[in-house]
Design a protein that fits this description.
341 residues; mainly alpha; 3 domains; two-stranded antiparallel ribbon; globular
């Protein structure tokens, strides 16, 4: 499509062979805009286009469809609609095109998260089996899968069939744990080589896995205008819901980067324990929202992300008590001291 919204050429390309799509991209001059939806399989297509010097533009499929409300839908109509949105300028609902390095980090972190969830499911299955057999071992050991817990499980009198099932589960847990350790070693090695890792690790509660998740899921922190926008991207910015003089309260959006949200919430416990600043924030929000402890955790997680944005954009490590910004004139007072947030 040209700048006058005229369809210059139209062709259907099969995705069964990468070579066919690569040959198609080779027909266009470098710098040509390629518009596509941010579906789950966009990366390999974007890499082919970028390899030919084309400019990839990702569209948010939900927002693009919302703009096309009432219009008939088909693959052809969607392609034409995306092209018209891009050529129209500000109407285009663009998405961030993550770099190959960021996508590699994301896949590594998400692979570890998948394996942790598999291990958790196996551990729950062990607890379920023991509970079904009438064995409650939680009062005897703090960690059933630690050294003392494993010794207790080995000495436990079980029928032959149940022992076979239990040993099979424990073997799978050991195998998955070994894979998790291998991934964590690779994550640690990459953190040592990343220039921004030390900045994030200086934040209370942020460990290696959380820092790596932040680097992978945030990507270029400069694409966010401020920390508030980053918190919104992670679904940690409560949004007002008011209509006809009725206030339905504030809720966080479910459409967010759930991996970044998970990492920020994981850092809350350590942050509250290791930082008087975070503990104060958690206590204030919890006192204002009796019976809703989750709001306090969300507030601290949001603070962690906003601080992360500041550190990444300024290149400075975290300070628990930053220096005051000095004095400034107040319109109604001779002078007023402004304290750093």
């Amino acid at each position: 499509m040209n700048q006058q919204f005229d369809i210059v050429a139209e062709e259907r390309i099969s995705h069964s062979e990468h070579g066919d799509l690569d040959d198609f991209f080779s027909r266009f001059p470098r710098g040509t805009d390629v518009v596509m939806e941010a579906t789950f399989n966009w990366p390999w297509i974007a890499d082919l286009a970028s390899g030919r010097g084309l400019s990839v533009r990702l569209a948010n499929p939900v927002a693009a469809r919302r703009l096309a409300a009432g219009m008939p839908k088909s693959d052809r109509r969607d392609a034409i609609w995306l092209a018209r949105l891009w050529l129209s300028g500000d109407l285009f609902p663009g998405c961030y095109v993550a770099s190959p390095a960021d996508r590699r980090r994301r896949s590594l972190f998400r692979q570890r998260l998948l394996q942790v969830r598999v291990r958790t499911a196996l551990k729950n299955a062990v607890h379920g089996q023991l509970f079904r057999l009438g064995h409650r071992l939680g009062a005897q050991v703090s960690d059933l899968f630690g050294r003392a817990g494993r010794q207790l499980l080995e000495c436990l009198a079980l029928p032959e069939h149940e022992r076979l099932l239990l040993d099979d589960k424990l073997g799978l847990i050991d195998e998955v744990s070994a894979r998790i350790r291998s991934l964590e070693e690779r994550i640690g090695a990459e953190l040592r080589d990343h220039r921004d890792a030390s900045l994030l690790l200086s934040i209370p509660g942020v460990g290696r896995i959380v820092a790596y998740t932040f680097l992978a899921e945030i990507g270029d922190a400069g694409r966010f205008p401020n920390g508030r926008a980053l918190a919104s991207y992670a679904g940690l910015l409560p949004l007002a819901n008011e209509s006809a003089d009725r206030d339905r309260g504030r809720r966080c959006s479910a459409r967010c980067n759930r991996f970044l949200r998970w990492a920020a919430l994981e850092a809350v416990t350590g942050a509250v324990r290791g930082s008087a600043r975070m503990l104060s924030l958690h206590s204030r929000v919890k006192a204002r929202n009796s019976g809703k402890a989750g709001k306090a955790r969300v507030a601290v997680a949001r603070q962690i992300l906003e601080i992360s944005w500041l550190l990444l954009t300024r290149g400075e490590p975290y300070q628990e008590n930053p220096p005051a910004r000095g004095r400034r004139r107040h319109p109604n007072r001779a002078s007023q001291t402004t304290l750093s947030a």
